[in-house]
Amino acid sequence: MKDLGEAKVILGLEIRRDKALGTLKLSQGKYAAQVLEKFGMAKCNPIGTPLEVVLQLDKADESDDALPYREAVGNLMYLMVRTRPDLAFAIGKLSQFVSCYGKEHWAAIKRVLRYVKGSMVFNKNSSCVLQSYSDTDWAGEHETRRSTTGFSFIFGGAAVSWGSKLQQMGALSTMEAE
Length: 178
What we know:
Layout: E1 9-10, E2 13-18, E3 23-27, H1 29-38, H2 69-82, H3 88-94, H4 103-118, E4 130-136, E5 148-155, E6 158-166, H5 174-177
Antiparallel strand pairs: 1-2, 2-3, 4-5, 5-6
Helix pairs in contact: 1-4, 2-4
């Protein structure tokens, strides 16, 4: 074995460490740029949100194999798991259709890519404040009428814990959903 020193890049994950300040920064800026280039979205107009608020997708009768939908979901999922928790809900939703996708699903993926383009650089927030958010929709899954519950904990401007879950049974009211 040979010691090559501190790691700078591992599998597309850029690592910047400052021992004097006690900071560790992880970034996938180059990987995100490569994903945008791969799907022809490097020069797209950026957008502020990954999904439309009222987006309702249905399973397509047949998958359009000409579209690189599965590949795009996989690439975005790799980005999401490492450094982009803000993509978790959108990718979770879109990954439900990897076996039955169409043009409307591809349009949703392109919107996520436009969001990635617009959010590649985040503003720093060095305050050590813990913030938490949670929300539930009411019967947001229009086929089964099930609700989705989600939460996020943010410390110092970065998400440290998050999750969303489709509830097991349909809620009869907004109060029951929450």
